[in-house]
Amino acid sequence: MTIEAPDDGDHATIYEPRLWQDKGWTARVIKNNDDDGWAVEMLRQGESEPALVGPWTMGRDKKNPKPLDTAAFNTLVKTASEVVRRHEQHLHALLHKQFEVDTPDGRVTVTLDIVPDDDDPHAWLAAVDAFGAELARQRVAPNFKLSAARAAAWVDANYAIGG
């Protein structure tokens, strides 16, 4: 049985035995190419690659997949959301570094934010005071290595990059 209802204007809510679309996610039961079993893929709305692909349970006839249901879909959404969240946190950690530098005028936070642009990769080195006011901002190479010592040296040099 297929139930379709308007969702957010672009996507319908679909509940089929092998395809569920709801809450910004699509769950699709697919044939597992590695063996005779089945797999399920979770695709977030607007994305071209699945966020999660995992094994799926066989039905009672041991030939066809078990149909999707509300509990399974909700669990899949939760699991796929966690995978996406961990991936985003990892990417943020790779592209963002931060160090605190104590100065006579107070604590300064030095950050490096890498912009992974295909045409113009670069990074921004910035310093803000304890109140969030920007003290300096400088464009640097995307491979600029920020460490606690380098952050302190930059602050001590009045925000000038040394050779």
3D architecture notes:
Helices cover 21% and strands 39% of the residues. The longest helix has 26 residues, at 70-95. It has 2 domains: 3-68, no CATH class; 95-156. With 163 residues, it is α+β, with helices and mostly antiparallel strands. It starts with a strand and ends in a 7-residue tail after the last helix. It has 2 helices and 10 strands. It has helices at residues 70-95, 148-156, and strands at 3-6, 12-15, 19-22, 25-31, 38-44, 52-56, 96-103, 106-115, 122-129, 134-140. It is elongated, with a radius of gyration of 24 Å. It has a 6-stranded antiparallel sheet with strand order 1-2-3-4-5-6, with helices on one face. The protein has a 4-stranded antiparallel sheet with strand order 7-8-9-10. A hairpin with a 2-residue loop joins strand 3 (19-22) and strand 4.
Shape: elongated
| Average of per-residue pLDDT values | 91
Query: Helical amount among residues, as a percent range?
Result: 10-25%
**Main sheet makeup:** 6 strands, antiparallel
Query: In percent terms, what proportion of residues is strand?
Result: 35-45%
Radius of gyration: 24 Å
In DSSP terms (H or I, runs of 4 or more residues), the helix count works out at 2
Element-level helix/strand string: EEEEEEHEEEEH
Q: Structural class, judged by helices and strands?
A: alpha+beta
Across the major sheet, the strand order is 1-2-3-4-5-6
Total number of domains: 2
Could you name the ranges where pLDDT drops below 50 across 5 or more consecutive residues?
1-8
Distance between the termini: 69 Å
